[in-house]
Amino acid sequence: MISLQFGYAGMNIITKISLNGGMSHYVLVVYRHAIATAVIAPFAFFFERKAQPKITFPVFVQIFVLGLLGPVIDQNFYYAGLKLTSPTFSCAMSNMLPALTFVMAIIFRMEKVDIKKVMYQAKVVGTIITVAGAMLMTLYKGPLVDMVWSKHRQSSTATPHHRTETSDRDWFIGCILLIIATLAWASLFILQKAALKTYSNHQLSLTSMVCFMGTIQAIAVTFVMEHNTSVWRIGWDMNLLAAAYAGIVTSSISYYVQGLVMKTKGPVFATAFSPLMMIIVAVMGSFILAEKIYLGGVIGGVIIVFGLYSVLWGKYKEEQEENRKRKLEEIPEAIKENNNTLVNGNLQLMTTGYSNEPKAEADKCPSVTIDLLTLSNPPPPKDKRATL
């Protein structure tokens, strides 16, 4: 996951250079997902060609909307916002993703909230803090924060007053575009959860079809928005590097790595590394792009990180509680009777003796603790007497 954050950070830097060089973000989205489709499809065909689910009309609609939300809406708005702001700011706004996903999951009844428990309070408060940090970054730019390694490069560039006002207006528009992109990405996660019920064993196939559908839709959008055919020209330059890097690293490898990590460690562990990307991009952007970092972005980014980890902590505690309940449900019904309790993941049997025993004699019988892991996976018996 740490290596993946460096991959995302490199994508933001390379894409920013390509967009500043004049490449259309509409064309970049087309090339990115076309390359992603070409990379993922062979693996999907080789590993998942057997027992493919039937593409019914509801399944086709899901794939169509997934392609519209991710490759078209999210990427186009994100690249447009990245062009008007900075890579560090765009990464900081992307940290709103877990909180917005949590809110939408509550709306669609995929998440439950019991406000009396601390874990759910942390999720709600963290969501509010995250949104507040994003609003601060949007509405307050603040003074320039000089970095030691880029101070001489920033001070050598004088900016006229009218250029500053235009930059402030573009900065605000870029904030709105990034928020829309994050909302589309959160919606993608909600719909993808429903689509995975059909493609639970064919994730590569689902990814390749979404990328292919997104490529077709992005081509249609580009023909509408870009009327000059020269924007499609691409050579052996930074534009090709940006499209290939984004398609291979952030649309192909990242899907596989995130799925692998989530299967073993869960989504909370995978999402917890996202603030690291913001730090990496801030350092790389200051060195490579002499990126200007403002006080509002620093304060808002710190607030978003605190809110994000509050949501993740609540989610982690909720998953722990669900695992304990799942262990209890696996215990046979005969063992659950007679007021048994679950203590630290172990089942404590409160024995009461036989019905014809006096209560004082029954109370002398000590409690028995059974390890649930040993109960679910008992060792093989040594002889017949052990089986009896």
Automatic annotation (TrEMBL):
Residues 6-138, 173-312 form the EamA domain. It is a multi-pass membrane protein. It is found in: Membrane. Signal peptide: none annotated. Keywords: Membrane, Transmembrane, Transmembrane helix. Belongs to the drug/metabolite transporter (DMT) superfamily. Plant drug/metabolite exporter (P-DME) (TC 2.A.7.4) family. This is WAT1-related protein. It comes from Rehmannia glutinosa.
